[in-house]
Amino acid sequence: MVSASNGREALRLLESCQPDVIVLDIMLPDMDGFDLCRRLRRGEVDTPLQGPARLAQTPIIMLTASAEDADKIKGFVSGADDYMVKPFNPLELTARIKAILRRVRREQKSIALGDLVIDPVERTVHSQRRILSLSPKEFDLLYFLCSHPDKVFSRQELLQEVWGYSYPGGTRTVDEHIKRLRKKIELDAGRSGLICTEWSVGYKLESRK
User: Fold this and answer.
1) Is residue 205 domain-shared with residue 116, that is, in the same domain?
2) Residue 105 binned pLDDT confidence (cut-offs 50, 70, 90)
3) 117-130, pLDDT tens digit by residue?
4) CA pair distance 142, 168, nearest whole angstrom
């Protein structure tokens, strides 16, 4: 385990280490934690050892002193996989880290859907001979939906199956992740309707698209 006292020091550490998970405080002394999270997810941070694609896939747990729902939603929209409010029990943080790593390292079979190929071992999504940049939670959500084609899941069911716990801020985080997935796997590839909204129910992945 390595630690940094500010954002710039963290970026320097990433040049010499490959973290399995990043615990990121929002209130950094030199930069905004939300902004750093977004930069990592967009692949804007490149290091000699990891590269932008590897960093974009690294799970991120955000820490903050704010319990406001708006800040929680902002954290997930920025690309965080989990969100904890201070003060918290260190044992709970440890448990959440272990839960994320179990999901990330879980070995499953690759799925091919049209020109999408989803590899859960490498945790990559190939589309038209290029690799899409997905956050770990976006990947987990896509893989889960692709594993159950044409089946409708409520937002609460997706929270339980993909996030592994009941997110206290509500189910809007599911909507935000679905929105980002649609942009990445549908609009960029010229598709439409791959992930369908069942009004008043939830979402499903349409296998015939």
Assistant:
1) yes
2) low
3) 888 877 888 887 68
4) 22
In this structure, the dihedral spanned by the alpha carbons of residues 10, 14, 20 and 22, taken in order and rounded to 10 degrees, is 20
The pLDDT value recorded for residue 100 is 84
Instruction: Report residue 66 as tokens.
Output: 């704010």
Same domain? 99 vs 166: no
3-state DSSP call for residue 147? helix
Q: pLDDT band for position 51 (50/70/90)?
A: low
**pLDDT at 209 > cutoff 60:** no
Find where tokens 């029990």 sit: 89
Distance between CA 83 and CA 81 in Å, rounded? 7
Structure tokens at 111: 């799925």
Domain that holds residue 85: 1-105
Task: From residue 171, give the alpha-carbon distance in Å to each of 142, 180, 202, 203.
Answer: 17, 15, 10, 12
Please answer whether residues 205 and 150 qualify as being in contact, where contact means their C-beta atoms are separated by less than 8 angstroms: yes
**Number of folded domains that form the chain:** 2
**CA distance linking residue 168 with residue 76, whole number of Å:** 12
